[in-house]
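// run 5 | inverse folding | seed 20
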C-alpha cells in the first residue's frame, strides 16, 4: 500500500528546513519531533555526516572500513553502533542462544579462543541483520524530518527504491550539516 501523503510530508519538511537555520539544540528537537528513538537517530545522523565528510554531503553506497575494505553503508553504520549494545540484555541473550546452538550441533572447536571467535562472528552476523532494520528506521525518521535524503545505487540503474542489488546512499542536508558543524563545500 502506497502512502502518497508521507511523500508530501517528507518533501514539505525538507523545504521547511531548507529555509531555516538550525543550531544543534534545534536539530535535536527536530529529530525528537520525528523519531521515537531520538538518541539513536541522532547517532545515526552523526555517523552519516562522518561518512559523508566533505564530498557533497553524500555517504554510500560503500564506505572504506578501517581495514581498507569496502562495505555497504548500512553495514558500516551497524558495525559502528555495535559497541552501544555490548551490555544490552538482548545481546547477552543472543550470545547464550548462539553458544547453545553451536554446542548442540557440536560445532564449537576445542580451542577456547577459536570458539570465542566463532561465537562472536555469529553474534555479529545476527546483530548486523537486525541492526540494518534499525538503521533504516532511523534514516526514515531523518528523511521525514528533512535532514537526510535517501536513494539507492547499484546494478543497472540508480533509483529511489531499493532492490535489484542496489545499496543505500544517504545525503545529509546542508542545514543538518551546518547544525552538526560539518559544513560542506
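// decoded
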Amino acid at each position: 500500500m502506497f502512502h502518497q501523503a508521507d511523500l508530501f510530508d517528507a518533501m514539505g519538511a525538507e523545504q521547511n528546513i531548507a529555509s531555516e537555520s538550525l543550531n544543534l539544540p534545534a536539530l535535536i528537537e527536530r529529530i525528537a519531533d520525528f523519531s521515537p528513538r531520538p538518541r539513536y537517530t541522532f547517532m545515526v545522523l552523526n555517523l552519516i555526516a562522518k561518512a559523508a565528510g566533505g564530498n557533497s554531503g553524500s555517504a554510500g553506497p560503500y564506505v572504506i572500513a578501517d581495514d581498507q575494505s569496502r562495505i555497504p553503508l548500512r553495514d558500516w553504520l551497524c558495525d559502528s553502533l555495535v559497541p552501544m549494545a555490548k551490555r544490552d540484555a538482548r545481546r547477552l541473550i543472543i550470545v547464550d542462544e548462539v553458544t547453545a546452538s553451536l554446542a548442540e550441533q557440536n560445532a564449537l572447536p576445542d580451542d577456547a579462543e577459536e570458539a570465542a571467535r566463532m561465537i562472536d562472528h555469529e553474534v555479529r552476523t545476527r546483530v548486523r541483520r537486525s541492526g540494518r532494520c534499525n538503521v533504516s528506521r532511523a534514516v526514515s525518521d531523518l528523511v521525514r524530518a528533512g535532514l537526510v535524503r535517501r536513494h539507492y545505487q547499484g546494478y543497472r540503474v540508480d533509483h529511489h527504491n531499493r532492490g535489484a542489488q542496489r545499496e543505500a546512499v544517504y545525503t545529509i542536508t546542508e542545514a543538518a550539516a551546518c547544525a552538526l558543524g560539518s559544513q560542506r563545500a
